[in-house]
Design brief:
With about 220 residues, the protein is an all-alpha fold. The protein has a single domain (about 5-220), classed as MetI-like fold. The protein is built from eight helices and no strands. It has helices spanning about 5-45, 50-65, 65-75, 85-110, 115-125, 130-160, 170-180, 185-220. Helix 1 crosses helix 4 (about 85-110), helix 1 (about 5-45) runs antiparallel to helix 7 (about 170-180) and helix 4 crosses helix 6 (about 130-160).
Length: about 220
């Protein structure tokens, strides 16, 4: 039997509390992961072979290993070598690593898409490599990368649902708790899915709008 309206309303505080944790993990993962991705992208493009190799390893492991494996490794694996991390921190570290690995490729491709003439002009003006990066490459490259970065942010938000496997009380965990108490897993998970959609759908519309604006800017 489907739960009554009042029963669903009684679930909302727990579900919204879980949604809040999901959003916190998403925000921190992006806040740490995107700058990390920029550093990895610059490392992959670096002339120093050691720095380039180290950056490639971090990128390939972060992209090659599923986010679930990274979560399990950091939360359950590291304690075996004496390093214990609480669930929230483990979730942020794992998803930030995953974010950094994927966004590094987005940023690297965006930087490499800039016309070579821009680099030649910077050299002609006598700009150092740091100034060239700061004033010429990054402003243009990040503008190109923005729609893809926003789209990936939605995937990271949805990916926080994996954090229930490390006992983090995010949205899916709260839905499972409600299901285990009321034996109504389907409606509880349906409510959780509706809350995910309430965030993801407007965010996807925003990404579409930004992509259109970026396309118009590129045509100018």
């Amino acid at each position: 039997m489907f739960p009554s309206y009042d029963e669903i309303v009684s679930w909302m505080p727990d579900l919204l509390g879980g949604l809040s944790i999901s959003l916190q993990v998403t925000a921190l993962s992006l806040l740490l992961g995107i700058p990390f991705g920029l550093l990895l992208a610059l490392g992959v493009l670096a002339r120093n072979p050691t720095l380039r190799a180290a950056s490639l390893v971090l990128v390939e492991v972060g992209r090659g290993a599923p986010a679930l494996v990274l979560l399990q490794f950091i939360y359950f694996g590291l304690p075996s070598v004496g390093l214990t991390i609480e669930a929230f921190a483990a979730a942020v570290i794992a998803l930030a690593w995953n974010t950094g690995a994927y966004t590094s490729e987005i940023i690297r491709a965006s930087l490499q898409s800039i016309a070579h003439g821009q680099r030649e002009a910077a050299e002609a003006l006598g700009l150092s490599r740091i100034d060239e990066l700061r004033y010429v490459l990054l402003p243009q490259g990040l503008r190109v990368a923005l729609p893809a970065l926003l789209g990936f942010s939605i995937l990271i938000f949805q990916g926080t649902s994996l954090c229930f496997t490390i006992t983090l009380p995010e949205l899916v965990s709260r839905a499972y708790e409600i299901g285990s108490t009321t034996f109504r897993y389907f409606p509880a998970l349906l409510c959780a899915g509706a809350l995910y959609a309430c965030i993801s759908i407007p965010a996807a519309l925003l990404v579409s709008h930004v992509e259109k604006r970026a396309s118009l800017y590129a045509q100018r």
